[in-house]
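Reminder to self: tokens first, then the designed residues, so the page reads top to bottom the way the pipeline ran.
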């Protein structure tokens, strides 16, 4: 599929820029041109398809599905984690979604299953992981994210931590926002999907370019296997360090994937690479700052500790399975 893109990158690198083949600069420039075009093609296709599917699952509809009182609480956790994959979510929507879920009477643990799954199992990361590493890695990524979300939600629910939610949250009455989602025609959904896809790419393109730029430098100037000793599967602390390193960073998943690909080439094990990516997307500092508006420090700390431990456990599991 990307053979023409590789030929284009070769022509630009060697014939137009006239960079000698085999040099470090040529390797970095060729990688940057090829990956930039490839990532943006994949990004557009993946986001368009998933956004179209998500047009049938608004946040209000998700809240209504989860607020059914009669369903088993464990089924509610599973349902919440699954809906987290397909419903629209960004860091800025975490607070209003949390308030809306609490106002609808959804249990705190179930709410957290959704809030953890939504950023952790990122649709863009899923599509790009599939395109770059294959179906096996993509499925393990989804399963691990869902298991972490479900288990974390159940633990938080069992601990009865409602007292650590800011008091004003329980006093807010959001009301039921009725949106005529079901009445949209196919053309309306397609047009809205196209507009959203273009807007999203406009928002994330800087992250993508920066991620590919760092990846291109590593590709050209850092030899294969350079990180194998300090971040390979034989270092028992690599997963913990990678998870801690990813928390204060802020990047879109689309910008992290090129780095994950290069980490693998440099000798970083798959579980360690994915732990870094998951901590960036699920425990980013900006999202923690936003959640602090609705959660007291104790609950925010418990949330970070549980999800962080889940990501670390998943990293070790990946390294054990994939070697």
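Designed residues (323 positions):
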């Amino acid at each position: 599929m990307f053979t023409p893109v590789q030929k284009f990158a070769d022509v630009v690198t060697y014939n137009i820029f006239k960079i000698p083949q085999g040099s470090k600069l040529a390797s970095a420039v060729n990688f940057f041109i090829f990956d930039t075009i490839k990532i943006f093609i994949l990004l557009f296709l993946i986001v368009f398809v998933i956004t179209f599917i998500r047009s049938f699952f608004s946040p209000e509809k998700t809240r209504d599905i989860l607020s059914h009182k009669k369903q088993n609480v464990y089924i509610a956790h599973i349902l919440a984690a699954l809906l987290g994959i397909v419903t629209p979510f960004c860091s800025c929507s975490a607070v209003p979604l949390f308030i809306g879920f609490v106002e609808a009477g959804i249990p705190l643990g179930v709410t957290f299953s959704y809030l953890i799954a939504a950023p952790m199992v990122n649709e863009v990361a899923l599509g790009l992981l599939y395109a770059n590493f294959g179906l096996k890695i993509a499925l393990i990524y989804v399963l691990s994210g869902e298991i972490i979300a479900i288990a974390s939600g159940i633990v938080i629910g069992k601990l009865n931590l409602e007292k650590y939610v800011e008091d004003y949250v329980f006093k807010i009455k959001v009301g039921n926002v009725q949106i005529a989602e079901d009445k949209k025609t196919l053309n309306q959904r397609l047009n809205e999907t196209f507009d959203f896809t273009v807007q999203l790419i406009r928002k994330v393109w800087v992250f993508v370019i920066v991620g590919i730029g760092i990846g291109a430098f590593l590709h050209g100037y850092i030899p294969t296997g350079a990180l194998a000793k300090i971040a390979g599967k034989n270092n028992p602390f690599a997963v913990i360090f990678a998870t801690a390193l990813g928390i204060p960073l802020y990047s879109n998943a689309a910008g992290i994937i090129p780095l994950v690909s290069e980490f693998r080439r440099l000798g970083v094990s798959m579980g360690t690479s994915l732990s870094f990516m998951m901590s960036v997307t699920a425990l980013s500092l900006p999202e923690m700052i936003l959640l602090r508006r609705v959660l007291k420090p104790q609950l925010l700390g418990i949330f970070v500790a549980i999800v962080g431990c889940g990501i670390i456990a998943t990293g070790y599991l990946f390294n054990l399975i994939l070697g």
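The CA atoms of residues 35 and 41 lie 10 Å apart.
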